[in-house]
């Protein structure tokens, strides 16, 4: 592993220390969450008892390969804890997520959990959200109309950059696990995240967005000097 990977794995190990046998867990998606799933798999193979709901097909495949038992939110009515990564974390533990394209399932799973813990490296901690492009998941139908409506909302909220349809390296549009498309909105700084959230969700073609507001209670941040713990409202 690279030094960055080692730091991420250290943060994942700290989050794993919060997990108790018998818990129902949400499993996140991304490079740091990958380490959490890998470490959890080691414990499961040694007899640790958990039942998990993955936030993406990629995470589901990784969990199955590690022998982690999986379920879904049709079967389970509530999860004890979700452990996931983030693309940005502000001082109030508000997040931008969705760089990997799993934001809809990530938000559904987090909302069904009693607690959400984020694991990330120090580069993800920012004074205000918006440096990382905000993913907006949209329906394929009426893409042009939805894109224009999103652009108007961005202009009202002072977005400093473009609105870009996410694409694959092949030139094709990126498609989420749910069959939707993603528009990446380049802000620079989001001054009113709650108002922006509402305005985006008021657009009929918007399925969800990557602002996770008030959902995270704790974060383990990997730094060169060790893992730091951030608590909500600290």
From TrEMBL:
Catalytic residues as annotated in Swiss-Prot or TrEMBL: 106
One GO MF term: ribose-5-phosphate isomerase activity
Top-rank taxon: Bacteria
HAMAP family according to UniProt: Rib_5P_isom_A (MF_00170)
PANTHER family the UniProt entry points to: RIBOSE-5-PHOSPHATE ISOMERASE 3, CHLOROPLASTIC-RELATED (PTHR43748:SF3)
Subunit description: Homodimer.
Major enzyme class: isomerase
Family note: Belongs to the ribose 5-phosphate isomerase family.
Function: Catalyzes the reversible conversion of ribose-5-phosphate to ribulose 5-phosphate.
Gene: rpiA
Name of this chain's protein: Ribose-5-phosphate isomerase A
Catalyzed reactions: aldehydo-D-ribose 5-phosphate = D-ribulose 5-phosphate
Any single GO BP term: pentose-phosphate shunt, non-oxidative branch
Keywords: Isomerase
Amino-acid positions noted as binding substrate in the UniProt annotation, renumbered to this chain: 29-32, 84-87, 97-100, 124
Pathway this chain belongs to: Carbohydrate degradation; pentose phosphate pathway; D-ribose 5-phosphate from D-ribulose 5-phosphate (non-oxidative stage): step 1/1
EC numbers for this chain: 5.3.1.6
